[in-house]
């Protein structure tokens, strides 16, 4: 009898094909897919949300979208800060000329006023822990530094250094009292030291006024420093280019140009001052003061941008923008004393 089904039934249509060389059987469809997956390095992994990994073009597109545009430079604000820097330097220079051997009270009042401005401005902007303690210790250190600068038998910088160190230690001890403030003591140590040393640094001008040729050094250094900051800020108002950082509204043209103009002003003043000043020595003093002032002012701008990027809420508008010139001249004061001792 013939079979009820054909012998071809159930057989694969490719079973009669000749085997490949080497005698290996041809692979089926799933095996070929596994080979392709193995050659491609395995199946694509899925993210936790179930979506596959994005392509490099998509990542590049996201990076371009996340790039923030440069911060806009306010022309009126830059000009206002430049004017404040010029007025601050002018007030200190004119106050230095009122100082005499037995008549130092007017200049001391001027210096104390600037110290209080520095203390209030920097504490309101940086917000260190135990704010009342910082303000109280800072005010006492300013009074003590001015009194020592006026009444000490010899005009030296050492007693002021001891007062600044003692103020930092006293402030840190006051911050350790409350648990809320204790947590932030380590992080704010640099800020606390900057506030105390900057406040005491202005008393260096009183010490410098008691040294022969010290008043002339004050004129050269403070004028160069104030002109540097004013020119740098005014240049940023019109040409803040090239930008030093997208988040910082400052330009390299203002920084370099301000330092050059400050050095030139110092050299010009040296040609009109009496011995031991010469244009060369005055230019060196002006260069040091200009570099110190512009770097201090630039550091304040970077710190302000860092606080804004970290999400901190902006503080008092006036305090934020006078912080740069105050910090610049606070750094210039001890630099002027050191250069006066070294060159004059």
TrEMBL record:
Keyword Methyltransferase included in the entry's annotation: no
Region (Disordered): 1-73
Extent of Basic residues compositional bias: 41-51
Residue spans crossing the bilayer: 77-95, 107-125, 131-150, 157-177, 189-208, 215-232, 252-275, 282-302, 322-340
Alphabetically ordered keywords of this record: Membrane, Transmembrane, Transmembrane helix
InterPro entries for this protein: Flag_MotA_CS (IPR000540)
Compositionally biased intervals (Acidic residues): 58-69
Protein name: CDP-diglyceride synthetase
Organism the protein comes from: Micromonospora gifhornensis
């Amino acid at each position: 009898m013939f079979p009820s089904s054909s012998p071809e039934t159930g057989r694969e249509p490719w079973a009669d094909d000749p085997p490949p060389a080497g005698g290996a059987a041809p692979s089926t469809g799933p095996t070929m897919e596994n080979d392709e997956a193995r050659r491609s390095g395995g199946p694509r992994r899925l993210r936790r949300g179930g979506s596959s990994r994005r392509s490099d073009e998509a990542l590049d597109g996201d990076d371009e979208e996340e790039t923030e545009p440069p911060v806009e430079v306010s022309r009126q604000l830059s000009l206002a800060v430049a004017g404040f820097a010029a007025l601050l330097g002018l007030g200190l220079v004119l106050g230095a000329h009122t100082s005499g051997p037995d008549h130092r009270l007017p200049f001391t009042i001027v210096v104390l006023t600037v110290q209080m401005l520095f203390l209030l401005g920097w504490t309101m902007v940086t917000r260190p822990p135990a704010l009342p303690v910082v303000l109280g210790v800072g005010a006492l250190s300013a009074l003590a530094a001015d009194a020592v600068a006026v009444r000490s038998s010899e005009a030296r910088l050492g007693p002021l250094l001891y007062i600044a160190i003692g103020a930092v230690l006293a402030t840190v001890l006051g911050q350790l009292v409350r648990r809320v403030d204790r947590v932030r003591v380590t992080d704010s140590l640099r800020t606390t030291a900057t506030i105390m040393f900057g406040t005491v640094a202005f008393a260096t001008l009183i010490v410098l006024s008691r040294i022969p040729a010290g008043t002339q050094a004050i004129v050269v250094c403070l004028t160069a420093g104030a002109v540097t900051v004013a020119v740098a800020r005014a240049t940023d108002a019109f040409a803040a280019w090239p930008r030093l950082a997208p988040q910082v509204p400052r330009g390299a043209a203002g920084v370099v140009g301000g330092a050059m103009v400050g050095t030139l002003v110092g050299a010009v003043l040296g040609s009109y001052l009496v011995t031991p000043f010469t244009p060369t020595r005055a230019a060196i003093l002006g260069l040091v003061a200009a570099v110190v002032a512009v770097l201090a002012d630039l550091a304040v701008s970077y710190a302000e941008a860092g606080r804004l990027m970290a999400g901190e809420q902006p503080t008092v508008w006036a305090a934020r923008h006078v912080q740069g010139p105050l910090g610049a001249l606070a750094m210039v004061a001890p630099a002027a004393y050191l250069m006066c001792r070294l060159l004059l």
